[in-house]
Amino acid sequence: MSDVMELRKLMKGHSLVNNKVGAQSDQQKGLPQPPFEKPFDKNTELIPLPPPIDFIVPKNEIAACIKDRISHRKFSIKPISLDQLSFLLWATQGVKFYTNNNSITKRTVPSAGSRHAFETYLAVLRVEGIKPGIYRYIATQHKLLLVREKENLDKDLVETACNQLFCGQAAVTFFWAAIPYRTEWRYTSHAFKVILIDAGHVCQNLYIACEALGIGTCAIAAYFQEKADSLLGIDGKDEYVVYLSPVGWPELSNNAT
Question: What total number of domains does the chain contain?
């Protein structure tokens, strides 16, 4: 029980750092702000996505989307379209505009201090016009970067998600990997709490956007950390998975909650 009580303190945030209240953040020390997007080789060919604003959303009443939102755990083999994927990516991490001499992004989801610690990765199984594999969303350009093609990706997804079979049935699985220093630069040791809060903002937008399109998702917090990080090709130290959510067309005989 003592371990449980210690873990409860994590939810209080500032109670863990009371002895460091006077400590300066790297921002206060005048250290340079970390980049708001993970760098990539500029010679890499990116995959353009359709403009999300031009996409006609079948169900655009927000109250109905909130009311009808459920978690789907059974998916059909029907692929989703590139238009639909584009809309979901924009809804979860799309860049609306820049501030502070283009050093801060304002996105479609809230984030403490506009730090936006996440990189979005996709494990694509069935998306029209996209080969199966691991991709990274380049939010500043609304494009995809192919990380690698991957055989037996459905099996890898099931194993990564603690053998939850529906993860291997989805058309695409969203992975959100945190780069914690983006938030630590301002909030020091309190950053971990707001990063996890921000993850909830992102995934809720995915739920609502899926409902608007008539497709389904189910957030997953039960996964093997090392397998998830390895699947995406990230180091697990300065960047690591914190959340994932498979997306696809629901089966009619769906186990939904």
Answer: 1
Name the DSSP class of 108: S
pTM above 0.85, yes or no: yes
If you average pLDDT over every residue of the chain, what do you get? Answer: 93
Residues 25, 29: Cα–Cα separation, whole Å: 6
Half-sphere exposure at residue 61, Cβ-oriented, CA atoms within 13 angstroms: 4
Q: Among positive and negative, which fits the CA dihedral 243, 249, 255, 257?
A: positive
Residue 200 within any structural domain of the chain: yes
Confidence of residue 135 (pLDDT cuts 50, 70, 90): very high
Asked if the structure places residue 27 within a domain, the reply is no
* Euclidean distance between CA atoms 44 and 66, whole angstroms: 39
Q: Would residue 158 count as lying in a domain?
A: yes
Q: What is the CA radius of gyration of the chain?
A: 19
Which amino acid would we find at residue 128? E
Whether residue 10 is contained in a domain is answered as no
Query: What is the domain extent for residue 244?
Result: 49-248
Give per-residue pLDDT as tens, 94-117.
999 999 999 999 999 999 999 999
C-alpha to C-alpha distance for 205 and 51, rounded to whole angstroms: 18
Element of type H or E holding 42: none
The angle, 0 to 180 degrees and rounded to 10, between the axes of the packed helices 82-93 and 191-213 is: 150
CATH number for position 59: 3.40.109.10
- Tell me the pLDDT band of 19, cut-offs 50, 70 and 90: very low
Helix (H) or strand (E) holding 107: strand 104-107
